[in-house]
Amino acid sequence: MKKGKLIVFDGGDAVGKKTQSDKLTARLISENFPLMTYSFPQYETHFGKMVKQYLNGEFGNPVNINPKMASLLYALDRQQAAPSIRQSLESGTNVLCNRYIESNMGFQSAKIKNEKERGEFLEWLLYTEHGQLGIPRSDLVIYLYMPLEESKKLLEGRGEKQDGHESDRDFQQRVVEAYISLAGKYKHWNLVNCASKDSGIRSIDDIHEEVYNLTKKFLN
Questions:
Q1: How far is CA 160 from CA 14, 103, 154, 155, in A?
Q2: Which tens digits make up the pLDDT trace of 31-87?
Q3: What is the predicted pLDDT for the residue at 123?
Q4: Close Cβ partners of 121 (under 8 Å, ≥ 6 residues apart)
Q5: What are the start-end ranges of the H helices in the chain?
Q6: How far apart are CA 57 and CA 67, in angstroms?
Q7: Does a structural domain hold residue 146?
Q8: Lowest mean pLDDT: which of 103-112, 149-158, 163-172?
Q9: What element of type H or E holds 141?
């Protein structure tokens, strides 16, 4: 039996990850692609609740917390879903995740300024999540890129309280740079630019068509 593929959506805050993943999900299901979806962190789980505490600053400023320690909260949350994800993949069902291991790679590596140490952290992280915790590897990553200023406008437009990552603009810039570097490093990553050429943001449908074509080509 042909195994399913694990597809990951990631991107900047307020860029529209859920909107795009929902649109892609509906379209793939309508075309009879077997599909299961997950969204991380799972805030209702034991470790997901701890992630929320971390983001809310209950353990200290999240930007200053050691990246290995912070990564473990997210990784343990994913580990709880790993058996279900693996079962779906082995049965031939594709899996679509809104955020996954790649979020740890982007956000936590952004805390490390030294390039050599950043590379060592990424090696540790992948070994920890895949080698020690048995979390399945992603097959296709779609990173929705948004310039920081546009992302900031969208966040402010929401009128919601920002977490410890979102409220630190300097950190957010480092996160964007980390993601761009990762997208250039790994062949299964695809960067989708959500900004229009003449400033502003591309339409939801325009972005969706690019995302859909990338995914359909991969699945076929």
A1: 11, 21, 11, 7
A2: 999 999 999 999 999 999 999 999 999 999 999 999 999 999 999 999 999 999 999
A3: 97
A4: 67, 68, 108, 109, 112
A5: 17-30, 46-55, 67-90, 101-109, 115-126, 148-158, 169-185, 204-219
A6: 15
A7: yes
A8: 149-158
A9: strand 140-145
Structure tokens, 215: 């995914």
Domain that holds residue 16: 6-219
Dihedral sign from CA coordinates of 24, 26, 32, 34 = positive
| Residue 47: inside a domain | yes
End-to-end CA distance of the chain: 16
208 lies in a domain?
yes
Quick check: helix, strand or coil at residue 190? Answer: strand
How many angstroms separate the CA atoms of 70 and 88, rounded? 28
Cα separation, 75 vs 131, in Å, equals 12
The CATH number that applies at residue 159 is 3.40.50.300
pTM of the model: 0.90
Residue 154 has pLDDT above 90, yes or no: no
Which one, of 202, 95, 109, lies nearest residue 141 by Cα?
95
Question: Is residue 1, in this structure, part of any structural domain at all?
Answer: no
Domain tally, the chain: 1
Q: Which residues contact 62 (CB under 8 A, 6 or more apart)?
A: 54, 55, 70, 163, 164, 165
